[in-house]
Amino acid sequence: MNYNWNWHIFLEPNPMGTGTYLDMLLAGLVVTIKVSVLAWIIALVSGTVIGVLRTLPSRTASWIGFCWVEFFRNMPLLVQLFLWFFVLPELLPKSAGLWMKQLPNAPFWTAAVGVGLFMSARVAVQLQAGIGSLPRGQKQASTALGLTTVQTYRYVLLPMAFRIILPPLTSEFLNTIKNSAVAITIGLIELTGQARSMQEFSFQVFEAFTAATVLYLLLNFVVVTAMRLLERYVAIPGYITGK
Amino acid sequence: MTMLGNLDFDVIRRSLPYLFFEGMRFTLTLTALAAFGGLVFGTLIALMRLSSYKVLGRIAGFYVDFIRSLPLVLVIFWFYFLVPYIGQWLTGASRPISVGAFASSLITFVAFEAAYFSEIMRAGIQSISRGQPAAASALGLTYAQSMRYVVLPQAFRNMLPVLLTQTIVLFQDTSLVYVLSIPDFLGAASKVAQRDGRLVEMYLFAALVYFVISCVASFGVRRLQARIAIVR
């Protein structure tokens, strides 16, 4: 291979005047982490609401949940980001559309909301399965004890279901981090984006992508380790994974 | 009211042949070939992972974990720049060889999807009871024969709904070749959108087409699942 390797490139100053090339990649990593965490919070909150709706006896509620999940699951994430970024501001009333377009950091907020809603459909499906896996006696016992529906979910079903679905939720969080890279298409300069601009400025393709790869692997490792600890901490006694 | 009045949906009608005969053909061909290649290599990786040679299992496991922790966009960039060098190395040419957009994306998606399909096939193979390969070897079948005639057909059949669901995900994921400015369906729509300044119409239409195809396909998978679930 006649490729000129230059691993010292990371310590050379970048053309943006923001320190070295390494600083550039680390800035991208920070954006990736910020957008993923925000997206994950959005996914967890809206996914929980939708997941609960899907398990309620009300026809309307489960229909709304069904539509939500099908809407966000059956379009590529890239297309969804385009809808939020390019299409929505044009369809809103003029003032609202203008506000969206002039928002500082618009790609960041669009990516967080877009990836968050995309992932919410998956969280909802997982949570529905988690609630469905609980013995029906749990719900009946709560009713017998005089708990309202809200109390039943708040104190009985959700705490159990979330602890059961923690492992799949971990992989969904990892997917959120990976999916944040799609936001490069609406101009968000996250980790992959920074690696790409480093490649364009310095022509050191493989160093740039190797560094981004290593940073993604590290991020993955940190998340997996943290979640394993959390899983052990909240394991339900009496279940296979419990103490 | 909004700007709906200013929309020109005729741009969609005018660009239909380009969108479908160029764009969608690229997307569907890429999806089908990548699914096939991903399944073949995925099955090989799964067999490596389950083989009694520990080294093979390690290598396969490492590959799967590695690919699955990277964003697809990054993997697309990786292969886009790497494939010409691999080609040079394989052919012994004096400079990196240029590979077409389609070949480059196909190699990327096969390599990427193989990791995901291998996990599905591994689950499928592990769902076959131990007695089956044992009976096969008692009948005198070799390892290859027992895999070919006994284990893999059943594993494939059991996992068919999951494999098809993964293929729908793959169909949606192929839209990411957009980052290489390749005219797949979304790329074609985007090209027309930018040429005619009709982003709203084209992206809405692209979203609708992806939505309808994915919905119909997943509905089909669900029916299939219901049909083959009764057999047991």
From TrEMBL, chain A:
The keyword Magnesium does not apply. The keyword Transport applies. Keywords: Cell membrane, Membrane, Transmembrane, Transmembrane helix, Transport. The chain crosses the membrane at residues 20-53, 65-86, 106-125, 208-230. InterPro entries: AA_ABC_transptr_permease_3TM (IPR010065), ArtM/GltK/GlnP/TcyL/YhdX-like (IPR043429), MetI-like (IPR000515), MetI-like_sf (IPR035906). It is found in: Cell inner membrane; Cell membrane. It is a multi-pass membrane protein. NCBIfam families: HEQRo_perm_3TM. Belongs to the binding-protein-dependent transport system permease family. HisMQ subfamily. This is L-glutamate ABC transporter membrane protein /L-aspartate ABC transporter membrane protein. It comes from Bradyrhizobium erythrophlei.
From TrEMBL, chain B:
One of its GO terms (cellular component) is ATP-binding cassette (ABC) transporter complex. Pfam families: BPD_transp_1 (PF00528). InterPro entries: AA_ABC_transptr_permease_3TM (IPR010065), ArtM/GltK/GlnP/TcyL/YhdX-like (IPR043429), MetI-like (IPR000515), MetI-like_sf (IPR035906). GO terms for molecular function: transmembrane transporter activity. The keyword Membrane applies. This is Glutamate/aspartate import permease protein GltK. Part of the ABC transporter complex GltIJKL involved in glutamate and aspartate uptake. Probably responsible for the translocation of the substrate across the membrane. It is a multi-pass membrane protein. It is found in: Cell inner membrane; Cell membrane. It comes from Bradyrhizobium erythrophlei. Keywords: Amino-acid transport, Cell membrane, Membrane, Transmembrane, Transmembrane helix, Transport. Residues 24-221 form the ABC transmembrane type-1 domain. The complex is composed of two ATP-binding proteins (GltL), two transmembrane proteins (GltJ and GltK) and a solute-binding protein (GltI). The chain crosses the membrane at residues 26-48, 69-91, 97-117, 162-182, 202-221.
